[in-house]
Task: inverse folding
């Protein structure tokens, strides 16, 4: 009984929770240089003043705080649209976290997460979608597992049909 | 306060999964018609749902993950507020006429909530006409209507708790409810649909479930 009190203390946090955008500065200094070096390696930032028009492809997690128009493809990685990010693009990624503004369709093979004050104007295709209170969304949500046929995020996998429900007589 | 009293709430907090769109303060009311509406949706394999209210994340998860729906979120409350704010409310019927990009007869279910209560008659007529158009034969439309004189100047987000309970979350509105509609007014408004179920709840809300008759041909192509 006494140990339960210990258990409910919010001291420990889950280690692997995907952190939102945490705009990690490129040059991070801290007590654990190997950790910051790892983050530099795995997360790329597009800063506030950057404007990109065209096709953006990559195989690393990406945080966008600037403006991007065109197409964004991060098929195996996490795309975070930061609070300052303004996107007018078709987006394909493993996971998409939106804190800024997205105009365009968003396809994710894993999850789309629209956080508080995030905004999406467009259609979402993803097996999991989370929309926070205070977020803005206009469009459609299709949560068919693995995406529809011809979706660039998972082009090779066939579209499994919804599980038929057995109804008792 | 005893130790157990202090422990209990904490344990509850940690047990409950985080649900950002459900707040403890919002009142929960029973719903009779939602279950029937859901039954009509589950009869289809990949139902298409049109939600006319503001986006509610947990509702999207409910319909998307549990029922396999494709959900169109078209927040008409926001459109109404915008027209009010900009002083062009008389243009709302014409706006609504072009508002829905969905094909005729392509939608399996429509969540109209209590939207009609906030609309003037011309806009309500145009909306009802458009909703009837996009609804497929045998599709269902769920609408709520107040049964008491208008007082509140707040819209309500209806958060699905489960198939028999709705959480009512009010938020800032541009106008109050318009004078209440009698049942016969509602039936005339949705003349292309048929009332299949009607409930008067204890909170003075009328829940009405409409169906589009299966034998009527879909309008225009």
Result:
């Amino acid at each position: 009984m006494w140990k339960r009190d210990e258990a409910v203390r919010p001291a420990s946090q889950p280690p692997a929770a995907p952190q939102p955008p945490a705009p990690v500065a490129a040059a991070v200094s801290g007590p654990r240089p190997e950790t910051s070096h790892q983050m530099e390696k795995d997360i790329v930032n597009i800063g506030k003043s950057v404007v990109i028009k065209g096709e953006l492809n990559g195989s690393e997690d990406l945080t966008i705080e600037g403006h991007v128009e065109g197409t964004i493809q991060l098929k195996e990685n996490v795309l975070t649209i930061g609070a300052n990010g303004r996107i007018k693009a078709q987006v394909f990624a493993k996971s998409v976290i939106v804190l800024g503004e997205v105009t365009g369709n968003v396809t994710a093979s894993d999850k789309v997460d629209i956080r508080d004050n995030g905004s999406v104007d467009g259609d979402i295709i993803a097996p999991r979608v989370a929309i926070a209170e205070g977020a803005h969304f206009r469009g459609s949500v299709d949560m068919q597992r693995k995406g529809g046929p011809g979706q660039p995020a998972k082009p090779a996998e066939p579209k499994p049909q919804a599980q038929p429900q057995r109804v008792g007589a | 306060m005893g130790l157990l009293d202090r422990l209990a709430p904490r344990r509850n907090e940690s047990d409950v999964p985080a649900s950002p769109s459900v707040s403890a303060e919002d009142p929960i009311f029973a719903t009779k018609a939602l279950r029937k509406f859901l039954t009509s949706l589950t009869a289809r394999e990949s139902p298409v749902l049109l939600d006319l209210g503001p986006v509610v994340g947990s509702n999207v998860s409910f319909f998307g993950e549990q029922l396999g729906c494709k959900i169109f979120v078209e927040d008409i409350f926001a459109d109404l507020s915008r027209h009010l704010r900009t002083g062009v409310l008389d243009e709302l019927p014409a706006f609504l006429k072009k508002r829905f990009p969905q094909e005729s007869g392509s939608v399996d279910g429509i969540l109209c909530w209590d939207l009609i209560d906030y609309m003037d008659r011309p806009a309500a007529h145009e909306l009802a006409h458009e909703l009837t158009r996009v609804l497929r034969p045998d599709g269902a439309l769920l609408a709520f209507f107040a049964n008491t004189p208008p007082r509140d100047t707040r819209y309500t987000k209806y958060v699905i708790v489960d198939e028999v309970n709705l959480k009512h979350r009010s938020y800032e509105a541009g106008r109050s409810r318009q004078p209440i509609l009698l049942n016969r007014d509602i039936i005339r408004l949705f003349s292309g649909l048929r009332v299949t179920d009607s409930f008067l709840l204890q909170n003075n809300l009328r829940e009405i479930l409409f169906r589009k008759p299966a034998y009527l041909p879909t309008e225009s192509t």
The domain at 32-211 of chain B is CATH 3.40.50.150 (Rossmann fold). Residues 121-134 of chain B form the longest helix (14 residues).
